[in-house]
Amino acid sequence: MPTAIKILKRLVIGRARRSEELGETLLPKRLALPIFASDPLSSVAYATQEILLVLTLGGLAYLHFTPWIGAAVVALMTVVVLSYRQVVHAYPNGGGSYAVVSTNLGPSAGLVVGASLLVDYVMTVAVSVASGVDNIISALPSLADYRVLMALCFVALLTALNLRGLRESGRLFAAPTYLFIGGVLIMIGTGLLRYVLGDAPVAESSQYNVTPQKADLDLAGLALVMLVLRAFSSGCTALTGVEAISNGVPAFRRPKSQNAASTLAAMGIIAVILFVGVTTLAIVAKVHIADDACRLTGLPDCAGYTQRTVIAQLAAAVFGGADSFGFYYIQAVTALILILAANTAFNGFPLLSSILAQDSYLPRQLHNRGDRLVFSNGIIALAVVAGLLLYGFKANVTSLIHLYILGVFTSFTLSQAGMIRHWNRALHTETDPAQRRRHHLARAVNSTGAAVTGLVLVIVLATKFTQGAWLAVVAATVLWLMMRGIRRQYDRTAAELAVTDPRQDSIPPARVLAVVLVSTLNKPTLRALDYARAFRPDHLEALTVAVDQESLSTLHRQWNDFDIQVPLKVLRSPYREITRPAVEYVRSVLRDGGPHDVVAVFIPEYIVGRWWENFLHNQTALWLKSRLLLTPGVTVTSVPWQLSSATGTHRPIARAPGSVRRGEPPNRVGHTALHSTSRGPDTN
How far apart are CA 9 and CA 14, in angstroms? Predict the structure, then answer.
């Protein structure tokens, strides 16, 4: 890796941590709350707004349903938090809904939860960042043209912070989260106090009426029910991220389950208080908001009007206008926590993908920890997919929100059903009366949770499917099929590699027939010949493919002048092919030998230090290896020769053992460690 890139990596990520330092990265509750709960806490900034946006489709007359819908969301939040506290205690090793469902309902059902949550974590990043950018634009409308660019930059920033590690990112995220909680509580308290004293705050949009989506729309019967249910499903975005704590139990300090359960309870209480306060204040201040500004009657120029978010309108109404300190404070901390709310997904997604990878449902690389003891590959994968989603949907919250929360309620419902079976099994073996009473109570809580979240899942699917939720369903289905395919591949590979009878599976070769590929006689060729001799093969020969007579004559002369005591086999290639004649000859050697003979092919290669030098050297070795490695009975050994650019000096120097782990070249004269490389062969 070039020095400049290594320096940049250390500046962004920090020094590498030893595996023994993993315990130092565990989180106390004060840091776990902002890391794992920033998503549900921040959702109060847009959950109320989503309810109002749906209700105003029918006009202002239907806003009187807002308190009832808000109450239903609060009741649902309470049930879900209580249910997940049972999960945290029953499954302290993490995995959350995936672990619960896989254990109690089977691997296929668990995989449904895993796929749904992975999709929803991606949506969490996209929606949170887009909503945060919206709040920045509410304070600074001139930035509206840079919406997508700002969103992508924030995703990149979050990626870098999370690559530094949970504990360090937690310290950075703690202050904005607590500042947001404090600021919104002050806004709610001030606004409600003014209302009690007879000076109720008035939103800037209260003077505007809202034209129904269809003129003279009069909703009744089923249409009214569907409107209310759709508003409720939009308000349920307040519950996103609740499951992240149950997924991340291993990241807590001991006692892990107790600390996670306490953090979950604190998150639920704070989220309910903030959501109820913002919803109440929106009703008091008469906030009017529509999906299209031109449906607000009384605007002189609706096409050029940028609606402020609900929380921005409330801050302006409570603190004395859009130029007050309170307004800018609320906008700043709201934008911060909305962007940082994506951090819930940046912690949940890598943890869950690591567990899925450990169970062979995702590539094993996702289970590996990076330099900072975090699951770096999962963090980067999440950032890339979320960035593409933000770019494709132009960072538009209204477009993205319809793809949201479906996966969350799928996991909610299945995990509660799994917990019912868990308690049923526990009751079969438990004899202590006190424990049985606790199990019965826990089962009742999870039964209520399963029934309620199942109903909400049906509502969300019915009301959002045609609005874009079908994309989330398709994505989760494709991911589910892909993960099953990955597991089948891993299972097939494991079965094929498993030792059944050591006497039959381990047969030493009868003879080793060594072939050294040669193009010109130089130092790398001599090293490859010496290295092949060191193996003491039963037969050794050099092989060259002659594409022109002049080069062949030069090689013959040098071979004789230096008295190389290895026979040189020449393959003439009138059509100037190199790979096919060499591969066919190696296969012919194998066919002519005995059934237990092995052909060992040695390929001398240049190792260069600068990326652009790769383009200056022939890549024949790569093609030769890719063909030869597919041939049973053939082994391929790369014999590297480090050029001065690879070592930084004209003499190879020793390097730290860790540098090999990071992919640097071998480290001293005569060192011939085997490695598969795509560098050029011994040709110019």
Answer: 7
